[in-house]
Design goal:
It is built from 17 helices and 15 strands. The protein is of the alpha/beta class and about 450 residues long. The radius of gyration is 22 Å and the shape is globular. The structure holds 3-[O-phosphonopyridoxyl]--amino-benzoic acid. 3-[O-phosphonopyridoxyl]--amino-benzoic acid (PXG) binds next to helix 6.
């Protein structure tokens, strides 16, 4: 028996990233409200949202300051565009604020409505850059298998998700994928360090295969998010940096998930000491309260595009939307005022990671891993052989269902269970998260007769 809202949803809502036929048989969970790290559904269930929505609600739910700033901005100037030689206070102030936190050589921001639009913007900026530099053959992007860069045609093409490429003849021409630094799955007999070097060297092999003169940029998430919280071995990024220094290829670091405090720095590029030419951002920029994204542009690209480029024929109706920008600015100001980035680094991330590691001793956990405020674990039948519990990585879905029943939003990527909680989560709430995760793992093991 469906509620009125579930029935409307079944009848008329075409849901993203879902099997809509299956959903029509089950009905969606109707989320009604949220506070702090908790969300509530129509049935009155309270769930600890260990995914911060979709990796975005960094400040947690229910921040009145963000509501107030949105209300005030709506009254003063609810909308104006940035196309007609115009700007407004929220866009100008937000651009200044973001660049003050970004690596020093990055001093411009182009605003978009989402992370996917940010990556579409990257694609056009990079190709335009090389044209203006007189190197029009430099068009190809190198990305990685199992990367996530969005769901538009360019975003999905840059991403390395086979199940997305299958639908709509993707990737588009000019995008190539190399191996990912996923040690648990692909490390074989190598040590973590050896595997990190090997995975990075597939970039150099691809550059040599295609010819440096044809490569525009390398794009990567600092750690893969939607791919399953894949944290590269310590040798990976230094080797990528060595390779990029050898060739004239731009570096795009996709900070859509990793930006705004999640790693204990404002940006993961600072954590890994990277010098990106472009950084797509979104999600934590506004803690998800309103849709907004952007591209932080390094001086090299910005100088060429601005000095030599004339009009850049690209932009969106909602680029730098004043209400979204005002909320994003307030969001950043609150993160600063409350010392949240520092708290992540020195307090709550060490605590979360220490407690998450306890799950490694569970009989069906093959590995735990984490960085800052993201973590993942691998479900296995056999810790040594890493054999999966069920065919087609179906145990992840079973584990997710137990997790939801236990009041914890922890989600599967195949047989990898992942979390990315709000940065404001308390120690007690971390304890609750871990207790619920343990219970969930026990129940999953029992379901498969593994205890
Ligand atoms: N880059 C990265 C690294 C992302 O994680 C995007 C770009 C695209 O952002 P928009 O705002 O266009 O969605 C993302 C988005 C998942 C999931 O299942 C992750 C994302 C989006 C949808 C689902 O984990 N990340």
């Amino acid at each position: 028996m469906y509620s009125e809202l579930q029935q409307k949803d079944i009848n008329h809502h075409f849901t993203p990233f879902s099997d809509n036929k299956e959903l029509a048989e089950q009905g969606s969970r109707v989320i009604t409200r949220a506070e702090g790290v908790y969300i509530y559904d129509e049935q009155g269930n309270k769930l600890l949202d260990a995914m911060a929505g979709l990796w975005c609600v960094n400040l947690g739910y229910g921040r009145q300051e963000l509501v107030d700033v949105a209300t005030a901005q709506m009254k003063e100037l609810p909308y104006y565009n940035l196309f007609f030689k115009t700007t407004h206070a929220p866009a100008a102030k937000l651009a200044e604020k973001i660049t003050s936190l970004a690596p020093a050589h990055m001093n411009k921001v182009f605003f978009t409505g989402s992370g996917s639009e940010a990556n579409d913007t990257v694609f056009r900026m990079v190709r335009r850059f090389w044209d203006l530099e007189g190197k029009p053959t430099k068009k190809t992007f190198i990305s990685r298998e199992n990367a996530y860069h969005g769901s538009t045609v360019v975003g999905a093409s840059l991403g390395g998700m086979g199940y997305m490429h299958e639908q709509g003849d993707l990737p588009i021409a000019g995008v190539e994928h190399i191996e990912q630094p996923y040690y648990f799955k692909e490390g074989g007999d190598l040590s973590q360090e050896e595997f990190g070097i090997k995975a990075a060297q597939s970039l150099e092999a691809k550059i040599i295969e295609l010819g440096e003169e044809n490569i525009a940029a390398f794009i990567a998430e600092p750690f893969q998010g939607a791919g399953g919280v894949i944290i590269p071995p310590s040798t990976y990024w230094p080797e990528i940096k060595r390779i990029l220094a050898k060739y004239d290829i731009l570096l795009v670091v996709d900070e859509v998930i990793s930006g705004f405090g999640r790693t204990g720095e404002w940006f993961a590029s600072q954590h890994y000491d990277l010098k990106p030419d472009l950084m797509p951002i979104a999600k934590g920029l506004s803690s998800g309260y309103l849709p907004i994204g952007g591209v932080i542009v390094g001086d090299r690209v910005a100088d060429t595009l601005i000095e030599k480029g004339g009009d850049f024929n690209h932009g969106f109706t909602y680029s730098g939307h004043p209400v979204a920008a005002a909320v994003a600015l307030k969001n950043i100001e609150l993160i600063e005022a409350e010392g949240i980035v520092d708290r992540v680094k020195n307090d709550i991330s060490p605590y979360l990671q220490k407690r998450w590691q306890e799950l490694a001793s569970h009989p069906i956990v093959g590995e735990t891993r984490g960085l800052g405020m993201v973590a993942g674990l691998e479900l296995v039948k056999d810790k040594t052989s890493k054999e999966r519990i069920a065919p087609e990585c179906k145990a992840g879905g079973v584990c997710r269902d137990y997790s939801m029943a236990n009041g914890l939003i922890m989600r599967p990527c195949g047989d990898t269970m992942i979390i990315s909680p709000p940065l404001i989560i308390s120690h007690e709430e971390v304890d609750e998260l871990i207790e619920k995760a343990k219970k969930t793992l026990d129940e999953t093991a029992a379901f498969y007769n593994l205890v």
